Amino acid sequence: MNAVVAGLGLAAKHGRLLLILGLLAGALLPGLAQAMKPWLRELVALLLFLAALRVGPGRLAGSLQRTLPAVLTVLIYQLVLPLLAVGIAHAAGIATTPAALAMVLVLSAASIAGSPNLAILSGADPAPAFRLLIVGTALLPLTVIPVFHLMPALGRGAEVLLPAARLLMVIAVAALAAFALRKTVFVNPGPVRMAALDGASALAMAVVVVGLMSAIGPALRTAPDVLLGWLALAFAVNIGGQVLAAFALRRCGVGRDLPSLAIVAGNRNIALFLIALPPAVTDQVLMFIGCYQIPMYTTPLLLSGFYRRMALS
User: Fold this and answer.
1) Backbone angles phi, psi at 111, to 5 degrees
2) Residues 6+ apart with CB under 8 A from 18
3) For the residues of the chain, what is the DSSP string, one character each?
């Protein structure tokens, strides 16, 4: 048991490297990526469980007392920003292009399930990200309706009701299981056990990204120029979105929670729309979704120092 804890502690120290290795494995080993795809839902549930175990029921309860600021943040992220993108797309005459559809979809989405885990790997408090994950997923069926109404090519906003409800159920089950474990077995974990938990989270994320990269390997060999274009857009939306959100949050006086909230701004669960929308829409943005995993899983490597400085300034 001590060897396992020590090994997970080592994984925590090298968590960012593990994410990079997961990205490379997904891109360079398409057979492995395809084999992992059927297990993505179970792995996402594991990520939620590990994040809830890390946060604990006490801190989450305290975090949820700040629901009103979370709701306002979610409305800006999931309603104001995508409506602004829709307006720009229509004004520029590009509303039906795949790039515009990808932009609007990613801005309309709630936080990824792994955002608390990304916060941990970036040295930030995961509780604010967990709060936005819960509130954002709960509000998603409402926030997408006006956005989808103004972008008819996306279909009807009501189509996300079932997937969003399913995700909320997974969050609830994972959190309840984790909190039960915290109350019985994992009571008052010390630094060594918390480091082991962080290592388990890093390993789980590294495995998840292998399956999410299944579309990248073939494109890397057959259409590298198209891949680079989508990759540039993915970095602009994800990393650019995080940086802009961090500066905006600092101007609003946000302190310790800033890194976690900014991480959510750029890391959205666009993959949820693969379940909710017709293939005629999702087929146009599959490459973007694959490319989007790269800035997502390199966030701790690229921005942890930036977030550390922003939180202290």
Assistant:
1) -60, 150
2) 11, 202, 203, 205, 206
3) -HHHHHHHHHHHHTHHHHHHHHHHHHHH-HHHHHHHGGGHHHHHHHHHHHHHHHH-HHHHHHHHTTHHHHHHHHHIIIIIHHHHHHHHHHHHT-TTSHHHHHHHHHHHS-B-TTHHHHHHHTTS-HHHHHHHHHHHHHHHHHHHHHHHHH-GGG--GGGGHHHHHHHHHHHHHHHHHHHHHHHHTS-S--HHHHHHHHHHHHHHHHHHHHHHTTTHHHHHHH-HHHHHHHHHHHHHHHHHHHHHHHHHHHHTT--TTHHHHHHHHH-B-GGGHHHHS-HHHHTTTHHHHHHHHHHHHHHHHHHHHHHHHHHH-
Residue at token pair 């666009």: 270
- pLDDT tens digits in sequence order for the chain, 313 residues long: 677 777 877 887 777 788 888 888 887 887 887 787 777 778 778 877 887 787 777 666 555 566 788 899 999 999 999 999 999 999 999 988 999 999 999 999 999 878 988 998 898 988 899 889 888 888 888 888 888 888 877 766 566 667 677 767 877 888 888 888 888 877 777 788 878 877 888 888 788 778 777 767 777 777 788 889 999 999 999 999 999 999 999 999 888 899 999 999 999 988 777 666 777 777 788 788 888 988 998 999 999 999 988 877 6
For residue 307, how far is the Cα from the chain centroid?
17
- CA 55, CA 264: separation in Å to the nearest integer? 16
Could you tell me the pTM of the whole model? 0.80
Distance CA 103, CA 1 (A): 46
Ordered domains of the chain (ranges, CATH): 2-312 (1.20.1530.20)
User: Residue 225 corresponds to which amino acid?
Assistant: D
